[in-house]
Write a structure and sequence with these properties.
The protein is an alpha+beta fold. 26% of the residues lie in helices and 25% in strands. It folds into two domains: 73 residues, Type Iii Antifreeze Protein Isoform Hplc 12 (Alpha-Beta Complex); 98 residues, no CATH class. It contains five helices and seven strands. The longest helix is centred in the first third of the chain and has 20 residues.
């Protein structure tokens, strides 16, 4: 049975050990207090909103499919502006990188027109699908109307901006640009044309043969 002297001896030993480690213990207690204070004082997490983004790299002219999209959570107020409400089934006017939000200015439609307020955004069917296959969004081209009957050629628009080149359906004929017997010849392209030249381009597209040359 331990005597009173044994108890006192053990107490003194324990006290010496505690005192020898008082600084590390004090630092540990201070760190715990700081962590507790941070957790108590931290603001609640911000509300988040789901934003549709590209699940992979998407090419210009392609039609957005459901599998092309995924969602990423953004804190409210930090999401990109002009998000497309429902991009599925829409044609891309420009490439979209994986993880990039799909905005209305990347799609053929009113959003694309609002991004170019100084131009008339017009879909035009060019007669030579092979030439259209050479075009890319951002190209600058000149348009000349040619009359196959008289052989006359007239410039109709200069420095036209190529905004989108919609992809051809897999069943389309590569040389004529037709899909079976339903589609007219040629291939569709979306152009940004000066307002003064837009009527002439529209008329030439249905009455003449439009010839494309690259602007200098």
């Amino acid at each position: 049975m331990a005597t009173l002297d044994d108890v006192r001896r053990r107490w003194r030993t324990l006290r010496r050990r505690v005192l020898a480690r008082r600084r590390p213990l004090a630092a540990l207690c201070a760190a715990v207090a700081v962590l507790v204070g941070l957790r108590v004082g931290a603001p609640p997490p911000l509300p988040r909103v789901e934003v549709p983004v590209a699940a992979r790299d998407l090419a210009a002219g392609s039609v957005v499919a459901p599998g092309d999209l995924t969602t990423v959570a953004f804190a409210v107020g930090t999401a990109p502006e002009r998000l497309a409400e429902d991009p599925v089934g829409r044609v891309l006017a420009a490439p979209v990188a994986a993880g990039e939000a799909v905005t209305d200015v990347r799609l053929v439609g009113a959003g694309l027109a609002s991004a170019h307020p100084d131009l008339t955004v017009m879909p035009v069917r060019l007669p030579d699908a092979g030439v259209v296959a050479l075009l890319r969004p951002g190209d600058r081209i000149d348009l000349t109307s040619a009359d196959p009957g008289s052989g006359e050629a007239t410039p109709v628009a200069h420095d036209v901006l190529v905004l989108a080149v919609p992809a051809v359906d897999g069943a389309a004929d590569a040389s004529s640009g037709t899909a079976g017997d339903a589609a007219p010849p040629g291939r569709l392209v979306v152009l940004g044309i000066s307002p003064s030249a837009a009527p002439d381009v529209g008329l030439a597209a249905v009455t003449q043969f439009l010839v494309v040359t690259f602007s200098r």
